Every structure is written in structure tokens, then in C-alpha cells.
Amino acid sequence: MKAIVCENFAPIQELKLLDVESPVAKPGEVVVNVKAAGVNYPDALVVQGLYQVKPPLPFVPGFEFAGVVDSFGDGVDQFPAGTRVLGVHPGYGAYAEQIAVPAMCLMPIPDAVSFTDAANLACAHGTAHHALKQRAQLKAGETLLVLGAAGGTGIAAVQIGKAMGAKVIAACSSEEKLAVAKQNGADVLINYASHDLRKALKGVTAGKGVDVVYDPVGGDAFDQCCRSMARNGRLLVVGFASGRIPQLPVNLALVKEFSVAGVFWGNFIENEPEVYAQNVKEMFTWFLEEKIKVVTDAVFALEQAPEALQRLMDRQVAGKLVLEI
């Protein structure tokens, strides 16, 4: 079968499309014919050796996918051949024509949901959902600030924040990106490239501060958010797309009485699979009710994976990217 292979932690352009052995299902495993694989910022980091986790080399990147069950090993009876499934595999391997995963990593896809939408729903919306529901315990009527609100996980946070009843403030670096956030339900728009984010938040919240901040950006925006938190606020650390990992001024957390919570979605699904399954069911329900939607910015072929990943690193994406296989 064909697969994208990372032979060394190196620039994205060194990824190769190679012929590799097709997987065979071991006991408890399922082999899936991959139809679509989500392209995520962690994928771009891990192939360069810049992510928290460094898998053994060589490896096939990609951890979210959707497809059709091809075969299964002993002990698997819940996914017959031909079943449409969504999968998340912490061990990577989705940038390929086939992938073998433990059956517990799969969930059936409703017939009304396409492979592309299912693949792109898992990570971005899954991260935002876990962050806002389990980590922040967001309540209806609270204010939610979403940084990087036109990116894949930012759009998801805007949509899910609205579905949970929050007033959503979207912050982006351009008017074009803010327009995307508005289309996805944002109530208030702030261009933090042309406006002082701290002053804007003070005005929007009448001096109270923000109840929940969803931050996949880091850098200077994080620094300003620490000074813009409401009492009992929750600042969610999701990622560092700006390239700078900020330092927390703990004196502000003390004086303002806000909390900082880390959001590592991969750790969540590995340690709380039952809760994750409940989250996915709720997301599919919201999707079918049109409370949330997948915004796919561009579709690439498998061999174009390096181009897609570089586009992510260059921050030239509004929504999600996907490989259709």
C-alpha cells in the first residue's frame, strides 16, 4: 500500500510517499481502508521532532481518519467488514491507504456524515469540546474568548461555545479571519493585530474580564489574557501556534483568582475513553442538528501531505485541511 513515511525528524519536505507492507489485523485490531485523514498542527510538529511526543522512527504520521472496515482480528465482533468508522490512533499511521488500530479506537459514523467531515470533526472539535466541557466547565451566559478563532480548532471552539450558550468573543490577526469567525457564530470580533487586546476585552466585558479563554496561540496574546481574566476565570492552554511558549505570571493568577488548565486531547482520549465516546456522540448530535459544522479549507491527495502540512505551519488556513485517499 501507499503511505507517507517520516524516516527522520526533519523539515516537512523530506516526508516521502512510499510503498509499505499492508497491515494485518492482530487480535483485538481492525484494519480500515482510509478514505479521509485530518491534517493537524501536531502532525506538522511531530514529523519535525518538535512535538511533546516523539514516536519511534520510521513512522507514518496522522492520527485522525475515517474509512471503511476491511478486516478484523480475533475478539472483534462489533465492526463487520464494510462498517463506516471514525478513528483516532495515538500511535499515528493515518496518512496511508490502510491502518490497523485497536477496535476501541473506532466509532461508527452516522450515514448522514461524510468521511471528510467525520475525519475533520475528531481532533479540532474534539479538542475544543473537551476543553470547554471537561476542563473549563463552561456555563451558559459566560463570556468565552477564542484566540486564533479562524483556525481549525478555533472555529470549533466558537461553534461549541455557542452550542453551550456562551457569549463568544473571537480574536484574530486579520479582518478576513474575523469574517470567518463571524460566519461561525462569534458575537464579538477583535483584531489583535490592529487593536490592543487587553483594552478591547476590558471594554467588551465592562471591566469584569473574561470567564474562559481558549488559547491555541500562546505568545503575546497569552500575556495579555492573563491580565484580562475575570475572577474565577479559566485560561485554557491548548497550543502555541505563535511559536513562543509564554511564561505564566503566577502573581496575576493569585491576585485575580483565575485558574490555568492544560488541554492535551490525546492524553484525554487515552485515559478517559468512555467520556471521549460520550463527547463524540454529543458532537455528532450537534452536527446533525446543524449546531456545529466542519469548515474544510482545502482538500489534498495523499502525496500532497507535505504541502498541506507546510500550509498549516505558515498559518494560511481558515478551518481544516484533509487528505482524501
Automatic annotation (TrEMBL):
<dbReference type="InterPro" id="IPR051397">
    <property type="entry name" value="Zn-ADH-like_protein"/>
</dbReference>
<dbReference type="InterPro" id="IPR011032">
    <property type="entry name" value="GroES-like_sf"/>
</dbReference>
<dbReference type="Pfam" id="PF00107">
    <property type="entry name" value="ADH_zinc_N"/>
</dbReference>
<dbReference type="Pfam" id="PF08240">
    <property type="entry name" value="ADH_N"/>
</dbReference>
<dbReference type="GO" id="GO:0016491">
    <property type="term" value="F:oxidoreductase activity"/>
</dbReference>
<feature type="domain" description="Enoyl reductase (ER)">
    <location>
        <begin position="10"/>
        <end position="323"/>
    </location>
</feature>
<dbReference type="InterPro" id="IPR002364">
    <property type="entry name" value="Quin_OxRdtase/zeta-crystal_CS"/>
</dbReference>
<dbReference type="GO" id="GO:0008270">
    <property type="term" value="F:zinc ion binding"/>
</dbReference>
<dbReference type="InterPro" id="IPR013149">
    <property type="entry name" value="ADH-like_C"/>
</dbReference>
<dbReference type="InterPro" id="IPR013154">
    <property type="entry name" value="ADH-like_N"/>
</dbReference>
<dbReference type="InterPro" id="IPR020843">
    <property type="entry name" value="ER"/>
</dbReference>
<dbReference type="InterPro" id="IPR036291">
    <property type="entry name" value="NAD(P)-bd_dom_sf"/>
</dbReference>
<protein>
    <submittedName>
        <fullName>NADPH:quinone oxidoreductase family protein</fullName>
    </submittedName>
</protein>
